[in-house]
Specification:
Helix content: 10-25%
Oligomer: single chain
Strand content: 35-45%
C-alpha cells in the first residue's frame, strides 16, 4: 500500500507527507507554504508554518519553543482509544510482556552522492536502556555505538573532552555546569531518536521519555484512512503519528527540523546540480555593482546574512515510514523503516531478524570508559 502519495480530497485540506487531512482540531491550523528540501524558492516561508504544522508543532531549534494549546479531554481520550487498538494489533498481551528486544539488519544511508552500507544491531531493555551498534563493511573504521542507560549517555567512540585550560586570547574553558548541560542534551537527543522508531514497534508511551498524545485529524488516501495523533515530549519534541484505520498499525511519524543548510544564489545563477537532503536553495539579492561603496557592500552582506537566517528558521519535513509488518512470536513487527527529508529518501533500514525477550548482557549498557 502506497501511503506516501495521494491527492487533495477536500478544499482547504491539510497535507502531511501526501495525506489529505480533514477534521483537524484547534492544534492544527490552516497550512502555509513551506520550502521543499533542495528546491528553488523565491523567498523563505514564515518560520514553523510548513505543511500544516505550526511553530509549536515543529521540533524547534533551541530557544524556539512556543507554548502549545492544551489538548481537549476528548482529543486525549480518542488518542488513547486509537493507541490501544494499535497495541492490540501489534501483539496485545504479547506486546505488553516484551521486556527486551534485539534486532539485526542492514541500513543503506545516503552520504553525499553515495550510498553508505551499514550493518547494525540494536538492543532494547525496557524501561530505560537502548543501544544501537553500527559497523561499516565498506570502510576501514571502527564500529560506533549510541544509546542511553537511564540518564547515562552510551556513546562510542567516547566524545573528546574539551581542553580544561584556556588558550591565550581564546574563550574560557567550559564550566562543569556547561559540560553537564551538553551531556544531558546528547542523552535527550538519543532518547528522541529512540522513540521516533520505537513508536512503530510499541505505539506507546515510554517511561524513559514520557510522551503525550492527542487526536487531531483524520487523513485520507485512495488506499484508506489513518488517524493522526499529535505527539509531544520534553525538549521541544513534537511530531504527528499516523495509524492505519483498517489494520491499526502505525504508518509513519512526521516532524520538522531546520534546514541542514541554506544555499543563497545570486540572480541568474543556476541551482547546484547536487543538493544534500534537507538543504534549501533561496534566491539572494543582486550583488553590488563593481565600484560600489563600502557601505553598499556591507549592506549587501547584511542582507544575505538576514536572508540566510530567515530561511534557516523555515522548517523542513522529516518522516519515518513503518513498513513490512510481519508476525513473530505473537507480535507484528516492522521489518523495514524508511527515512526521508522532504521528498528525498535518506535512509532505508531492513531488519533480518528480531529476538523477543532474550537475555542481554548487562555490560552492553555500561558507558564506555
Amino acid at each position: 500500500m502506497n501511503w506516501s502519495a495521494m491527492s487533495v480530497v477536500c478544499a482547504g485540506a491539510l497535507l502531511v507527507s501526501g495525506y489529505s487531512i480533514a477534521g483537524a482540531q484547534e492544534r492544527v491550523p490552516p497550512p502555509a507554504p513551506s520550502p521543499r528540501a533542495g528546491a528553488q524558492m523565491p523567498a523563505p516561508a514564515d518560520p514553523g508554518r510548513g505543511a500544516g504544522i505550526p511553530p509549536n508543532q515543529a521540533s524547534a531549534a533551541p530557544g524556539r519553543q512556543a507554548a502549545a494549546p492544551a489538548p481537549s479531554p476528548a482529543a486525549i481520550e480518542r488518542a488513547n482509544t486509537v493507541l490501544e487498538a494499535a497495541r492490540q494489533a501489534l501483539g496485545g498481551d504479547k506486546l505488553a510482556a516484551v521486556r527486551t528486544l534485539v534486532g539485526n539488519g542492514r541500513t543503506r544511508r545516503l552520504r553525499g552522492n553515495n550510498i553508505q552500507p551499514i550493518e547494525f544491531e540494536l538492543s532494547i531493555e525496557l524501561p530505560d536502556k537502548y543501544l544501537r551498534k553500527d559497523e561499516f563493511p565498506a570502510e576501514e573504521s571502527d564500529p560506533t555505538s549510541t544509546g542511553f542507560n537511564g540518564t547515562q549517555l552510551l556513546q562510542f567512540p567516547v566524545p573528546q573532552a574539551p581542553p580544561m585550560a584556556a588558550r591565550p586570547g581564546g574563550p574560557p574553558p567550559p564550566s562543569a555546569a556547561q559540560l553537564e548541560a551538553q551531556r544531558a542534551a546528547r542523552v535527550m537527543t538519543a532518547k528522541q531518536d529512540f522513540v521516533r522508531f520505537a513508536l512503530g514497534i510499541f505505539a506507546s508511551n515510554f517511561e524513559t521519555y514520557p510522551l503525550t498524545f492527542a487526536w487531531v485529524a483524520e487523513a485520507e488516501a485512495p488506499q484508506g484512512k489513518a488517524d493522526v495523533l499529535d505527539v509531544r515530549g520534553a525538549g521541544n519534541f513534537a511530531a504527528l503519528l499516523l495509524i492505519n484505520r483498517d489494520t491499526h498499525l502505525p504508518v509513519m511519524l512526521r516532524w520538522q527540523t531546520p534546514p541542514t543548510s541554506v544555499i543563497v544564489t545570486a540572480p541568474g545563477q543556476p541551482a547546484p546540480a547536487s543538493v544534500a537532503p534537507g538543504a534549501v536553495i533561496v534566491a539572494g539579492p543582486p550583488p553590488p555593482a563593481a565600484g560600489a561603496s563600502q557601505a553598499e557592500q556591507e549592506q549587501y552582506a547584511k542582507d544575505v546574512v538576514a536572508l540566510r537566517a530567515k530561511t534557516q528558521a523555515s522548517p523542513v519535513e522529516q518522516t519515518i515510514y513503518f513498513q513490512d509488518y510481519r508476525p513473530q512470536d505473537g507480535l507484528q513487527l516492522p521489518f523495514r523503516f524508511r527515512r526521508a527529508i522532504g521528498a528525498d529518501t535518506t535512509e532505508e533500514t531492513t531488519f533480518d531478524r528480531y529476538r523477543v525477550n532474550p537475555r542481554i548482557d548487562p555490560k552492553r549498557f555500561e558507558p564506555a570508559k
